[in-house]
Amino acid sequence: LLLWALEDLSEMDFKKFRRTLACRDLWGQRHIPWGRLEKADCVGTEKLMLDFYGGEAALDMAITIFERIQLRDRAARLRNDREKDYRKDYKKAIRQAYSRIMDQNARMGEYVHLNTRYTKLVIVDKHLDEEQRQHEIMAVGRRHVEIMKEQASSSITVDDLFKPGTDDWIPRVVVLLGAAGVGKTMTARKIMLDWASDKVFVEFDYVFYIHCREGNLLTSEASMVDLITQCCCGSSPPLAEVLRHPEKVLFIIDGFDELRFSFDRPPCELCSQPWEQKSVEIILSSLFRGMLLPKSSLLITTRPAALQKLGKCLECERYAEILGFSEAERKEYFCKFFRSKEEAAAAFHFVRSNETLFTMCLVPIVCWIVCTVMKQQLSCRGGLTQSPKTTTGIYILYLSFLLQSLSSRLERGMPGVLRRLCCLAADGIWKQKVLFEESEVQRYALDQREALPLLLNEHLFQRDISCVSTYSFIHLSFQEFFAALFYLLEDEGEARDLPAGPTRDVKELLESYGNSRNYFMLTVRFLFGLLNEERRRELEKKMGCRIAPRITQELMAWLQNSQKTALALLMQEKAVIRELEVCHCLYELQDERFVATALDPFAGVRLRGLNLNRFDQTVLSFSVKNFPKLESLDVGHCSFLWDDPEDSVGPQPAEQPYRENQQEGKQSPIHLLCQALENSGCELKVLRLWQCRLTAASCGTLAAVLPANPSLVELHLGDNELGDGGVRWLSEGLRDPACRLRTLR
Predict the structure, then answer these.
(1) What does UniProt give as the signal peptide span (predicted)?
(2) Both 621 and 697 in a single domain?
(3) Domain of 682: which CATH number?
């Protein structure tokens, strides 16, 4: 670049360039003496500059001299050529860095190619519930919220995230939601690879990936340009050129929910200049609030539970949600995972024949665990020896698989290792810590080098000028699983020799979860799952540790109190379940007697604005079926996603009358819910299904509910797409003598 720029100069301009280069006052520092430059040609001058200043500094010097001798167009051209040249190198480095991923099943040091393993995920526009919508109205403005309100839960692609909306307005800040293990980080890494391959987001010149768990480790002050430089795979970017057009820059902030910062700094403490040295908390707060690089774009991945915290520091303009794999994509994942077509077909057939297990496989990490275990068992015994029905069961299955692979010598010491691992996990959860430094791992005496790689990943992290060894659980959800186990394991005296950590008082955990609704959610869900007697016995046998169900009553009391709002208590209204997470917790337990007792104080369910995937529907239906005093069921503005969202919201075949073909009813998106209502035995009075994007395909199963629930007097079906055919099938149920409906909206 430097040589081309020099060769393009006239003889007079080239002489001016050399004279200025030899000037003492140009930088006030070292300069090349005129005696060495006087007779130098373009090649000689270039060599002198590179030897004297180094590559990047030589280009900086050339640009400065061009501007000094009034050749501003040449300075601009060299600046642009340099930036384009760097951009090519940066994309090449990104392709190399993001094309491979570590596979936990591979031998040490082996990787798999991301493109050969990655399977497309279902992503939909995300509704906001009423509470979130009120918050966004205050934060963003009514116009943007109305746009979001109109968005349907139809399937979109990654490339649609920054596309113009219905009014041609382009979002600058997009939040990509997803439950634990649903593929947020994998999607973020695939975006980086595809952008560097010119497949997505071609409107951005630069995309920088910032992983929040590594941001937690940056304790010293830094600037925005320092964070950008860390993203650049070891090269030095032309920062001035990169930041000259911030509207062409996208930051991917992966794992917002893992950040330990509070983000409640006053505006006077924030910064607006990319070179300002501040704490990482202030740098990110300034970026989120639009004070720093306000024209740049943000794509933030997070678990839904962190939305409230995110809303305090960010004006989000579009929400999307990763739901997991469709049926076709689950099959594709199995085909990619198994090298043998026969093994892939056998494994998929087994899982497909178990409806609950197959439904759970819509979550990629569950799919990965099932495939990992089946791969081992197909080579040994020819099939999966057990079929878990819950997320907790899946994680126990994987832990059992890991423990089976240990030698007898390591197996004897494993109970102690697992207890210490649970202490480390719980301590990390309380401190919102995902990466542990080597000294922390050693303090917990977790130094069995042969066993440790089974449970922890090792990372090398660049901090300042030193390289630090850090460890994490193989996935954050595994840390949450072990943290839950911490509250149930019997203390056999080892705790005395360990660093001071959280107490085993589960009330403290539940109280903190109740206040934050964030970091402890999956840990609490696992607590319920680990109380299941069958799974508890199985785990005791595999781990060699005693597990005590001493927290059952605490969980029962917490669950019942968590749904009682202050207003409802003041007005003496009947309490209702307001969070789907309650149903997830009860489903994990798989104890119908406990569920009925837990739900006894409640008279209804009220959920808003949720994209209910197939597993969510299974979970909700389980609670509805065991709800002894259910009087009202209100799921307004919720989308019942069937397989791929297009299947549930697009045109669907008209269903047969409800009595004629029960098998046809299974094609209805609300089949599971209606089936639960038919079998619940409760005295349901009000059923609200307004704005749920229901079509004629749902009306047959809905019609069957009417005579099965003679106590039902109100049915709300407004703002759906039933059509004349759907109303005809509904009328079949209305005509039934057992139907006592009084109000149909």
Answers:
(1) none
(2) yes
(3) 3.80.10.10
pTM exceeds 0.85 for this model:
no
Backbone angles phi, psi at 576, to 5 degrees: -130, 155
Domain presence at residue 98: no
Q: Has residue 361 been placed in a domain?
A: yes
- What whole-number distance in Å separates Cα of residue 154 and Cα of residue 166? 14
Structural domain including 505 reads: 402-543
Reduced to 3 states (helix: H, G, I; strand: E, B; else coil), residue 177 is strand
Distance of CA 279 to the CA centre of its chain: 25
Tell me the CA distances in angstroms from 248 to 86, 201, 208, 236, one per residue in order: 15, 10, 11, 19
3-class secondary-structure state, position 663? helix
Give alpha helix (H) positions in 563-636: 566-570, 580-589, 592-599, 614-625
Whether residues 605 and 691 share a domain: the answer is yes
pLDDT category at 150 given cuts 50, 70, 90 is very low
Both 353 and 434 in one domain: the answer is no
Which of 174-178, 533-537, 586-590 has the weakest average pLDDT?
533-537
- Per-residue pLDDT at 435: 86
Output DSSP code: residue 455: H
Tokens for 532, please give them. Answer: 């299941």
Tell me, what amino acid is at 43?
V
Top pLDDT among 513 and 256 is at: 256
Tens digit of pLDDT for each residue in 693-734? Answer: 999 999 999 999 999 999 999 999 999 999 999 999 999 999
Task: Tell me, yes or no, whether 180 and 267 share the same domain.
Answer: yes
731 and 582 in a common domain: yes
Tokens matching residue 395: 């994680």
Joined tokens for residue 675: 């089936």
Distance CA 483, CA 428 (A): 8
pLDDT above 90 coverage of the chain, percent? 42
Residue at token pair 């937690």: 216
Q: At what angle do helices 521-530 and 580-589 cross, to 10 degrees?
A: 30
pLDDT tens track for 262-285 = 788 888 999 999 999 999 999 999
In whole angstroms, how far apart are CA 95 and each of 111, 183, 195, 203, 659? 15, 20, 9, 18, 57
In the chain, the number of structural domains is: 5
Q: Which residues contact 429 (CB under 8 A, 6 or more apart)?
A: 479, 480, 483, 519, 520, 523
Do 258 and 340 have their domain in common?
no
Tokens of 121: 């995920």
Distance separating alpha carbons of residues 50 and 65, to the nearest angstrom:
15
Distance, in Å, from the CA atom of 714 to the CA atom of 431, rounded to the nearest integer, reads 48
In a domain, 76, yes or no: no
The answer to whether the beta carbons of residues 295 and 271 sit under 8 Å apart is no
Does residue 95 lie in a domain region?
A: no
